[in-house]
Amino acid sequence: MKHNVKDRRGFLREIYIKYGIWIILLFMIVLMSCLTDTFFTTRNLLNLVRQVSFIAIIGFGSAYIMICGGLDLSPGSVVAVTSVVSCSFATGNYPTSVAILIGLLIGVVVGTVNGLLVTALRVPPFIATLGTMTSCNGIAMLYSDGNSIKGLTDSYKYWGAGKIMGIPISIIIMLVLAVIMFVVLVYTPFGRHIVAVGDNIQAAKISGIKTERIILLVYIIGGVLASIASILMSGRIASGQPLLGDGYEMDAISAAVVGGVSLKGGVGSMGGVICGALIIGIINNGMDLLGVSSYWQQIVKGIIIVLAIVLDQLKQRSE
Amino acid sequence: MMKDYILEMNHIKKAFADVLVLDDVSLKIKKGSVHALLGENGAGKSTLMKILMGIYKLDSGEILFKNQVFHNSSINIVLEKGISMIYQEINPLSNMKVAENIFLGREPKFKLGILNYKKMYADTQKLFDQLGITQLKPQEIMGNLTVAQMQLVEIVKAVSYHSELIIMDEPTSSLTENECRHLFKIINQLKHEGVSFIFISHKLEEIFEVSDEITILRDGQWIGNYSISELDKNSIIEMMVGRKVRQLYPKVSSLPGEVAIRVEDLSVSNLFQKISFEARYGEIVGFAGLVGAGRSEVMETVFGYRKKTDGKIFVCGKEVKIKSPADAVRQRVAFLTEDRKRTGLFLALSSLDNMFMPSLKKHCSGLFLKYKQMQREYAVFQRQFKIKTASFKQPTAKLSGGNQQKILVSRWLLTEPDIIILDEPTKGIDIGAKSDIYQCIASLAEKGKCIIMISSEMPEILGMSNRIYVMHEGRMTGELSRDKATQENILKMATGLEEELN
């Protein structure tokens, strides 16, 4: 009998360790559905998940970088630069493909700068990406003169605003990216090398892994994902905005951390990032619906992020 | 009669989850004696010590310290009562001074809580004088000390607590011969002042040198308590392993073949100068020397982990450019590093990940990894090397040192190397695992692999190598064939007293 109880407790703990944040997410969905009539409607949920898809797409990149032992503060500013530059090519003067490619190129460039600063010049990631973040925010304002860029072509807006079979394209893109990012991380040598570099960079180097190349590539991936999110967001609001990405780096890092990505590197999953992004999305959306002021929203968001880490620490200690 | 013992741990039982790790274990320490606690990794030595220090609670049994029931509710209380433990891996506050490390948490203060540094330095100096330590200053920054000196500081700290019982967990694993001598001298001195020691070590030679009594554990069971004079090396090993170890160092029957690797005048400024050596296929070449002689640095440079300032490397007679470990792996060189945790393992990752990390690209079909095949190969190595893991998913942080080392050896074998560099391959692992690794090294040599082995353990290097190079302070000071090598002439070359180069 005693044995049985112990077993069941072990079983519950295992479930908690494996699905802890998903349980929290479920709890939040049930709670919001009970508190408001408007939350659990197709309309609101699609709207919510579309909003979340932007955070998640950027979050995948942040997660890769963190799993690799780094940190990226620049995605919000990459969103801003991509938005104004890409949109300035999307007002009918160039084909949409050119506008999108130029947008993605910005992600590649900023990611490369971040990666080279960290690898070749050995600047700590926090400082390196703080620098690019600050500069890129300036570049976005300079390029757009602080104004929004309007008059985008329909084919450009389609990516951010369009739907396929009633589902917003950005959600589909998020899911496709999640699958790709998951498969790459778990089922390719490149992905395992990312995890190895994040866990122990010296051991990775001795194992013959080209650590600097891995780190560089991871920052580039992070930049490109921020650019993808930016193109989708710009399409959604039908304009290029120099302040579009404001705060998104923090939401992305929070989503990754709440989703179980370790700041120490070596640990994390893409499903966790989606879950983390959903939790953050529900906090934003749910409190909007409840009429909670945005000041309070920030306070609650901060508490929940710290709480997620506290729970994670308790979990690790109990192991 | 009872007064003889300073510590008695009687009939200790302890289980984790449902696994019994200590089953009716007893340990009795006589006052003013050095008591060696022996057993393979996983035998329960550390658990027993952690119970004594109050880190784990015992399930049943009793602890008597100075004939009184010992309540060890927290480490601080244990320290206050006079028991100190010096851990294998010391984690000092490296940016603070020696004196601050010793008096951490009980710094002498003026009124108002302001620190009295003058008194702290003076008290520290007094302790140094008492122990005859002349090479240390209280004001020195901890991070600048050698491992041996840090250990001395830990001992001083124990003395400053007026400890009557000091536990040392593998204190000599990173020390040179000379440093060991000095450590033993201080242990002896304290012993005569009535301090008792529990001494945990895998090096049998020093057990005979330093200890008075021995307690042996195996698989959580108490095997026996003996006076050192009753035992010899073989009987100890038998009792630890539970079977007869016929030959610790296996003989390699095959003859060396062609030159596999030749290094000419390799230099890295400030570290080592003009190092030349060669090693043949089917040969085990030993690198002897004191810790800090530059042997690891030479091998790191050969492997491309460090940048050379000068010199040439030939593999199979052809000069090769090795600029990174990736290049070395491509030349079929493998390098098992000395510090498992720092440069070897991915502690948070699974045993499977750890084993296959350098050879992932060989286990792909197209872009994707073939996990099924990897699991099969994992099982083969697991059987061959007797690797004990709960599953291939288990993070390596939770494995014993011996199992970790076997995973790292498997890792490098999976890259199918021709030249295998081993840096202290048996450091800190138990006799059973050691024997397995020696068998593996010998069979690799027999299969025609070229083995280069750095080792600071004399019996190991003498027992295993065909040829021995000796280094001293960044220079090559000798080359000896197996029949000419003795402990004495190696030591003379390693300390720079004598040089002999072909």
Verbal overview:
The complex is a heterodimer of chains A (319) and B (502). Chain A has 13 helices and two strands; from the N terminus they run ααααααββααααααα. Chain A is an all-alpha fold. Chain A has one domain (40-318): Orthogonal Bundle (ABC transporter involved in vitamin B12 uptake, BtuC). In chain A, a hairpin with a 2-residue loop joins strand 1 and strand 2. The radius of gyration of chain A is 20 Å and the shape is globular. The model of chain A has no long low-confidence stretch (mean pLDDT 90). Chain B has a domain at 2-241: Rossmann fold. The radius of gyration of chain B is 24 Å and the shape is globular. The N and C termini of chain B lie far apart (63 Å). The A-B interface holds A 183, 187-189, 192-193, 195-196, 199-200, 202-210, 262, 266-267 and B 303, 305, 324-326, 328-330, 335, 337, 342-349, 353, 356-358, 360-361, 364, 367-369, 371, 411, 415.
Provide a short characterization of the protein structure.
The complex is a heterodimer of chains A (319) and B (502). Helices cover 77% and strands 1% of the residues of chain A. Chain A has 319 residues and is mostly helical.
| Oligomeric assembly | heterodimer
Q: Mean of residue pLDDT of chain B?
A: 88
CATH topology of the domain at 2-241 in chain B: Rossmann fold
The name of the CATH architecture of the domain at 2-241 in chain B is 3-Layer(aba) Sandwich
- Which protein chains are joined by the largest interface, and how many residues does each one contribute? A-B, 22 and 31 residues
Give the strand line-up of the largest sheet of chain B: 6-7-8-3-9-10
Structural class of the helix and strand makeup of chain A? mainly alpha
Mean pLDDT of chain A: 90
User: Number of DSSP strands of chain B?
Assistant: 22
What would CATH call the class of the domain at 2-241 in chain B?
Alpha Beta
Strand content of chain B: 25-35%
Shape of chain A: globular
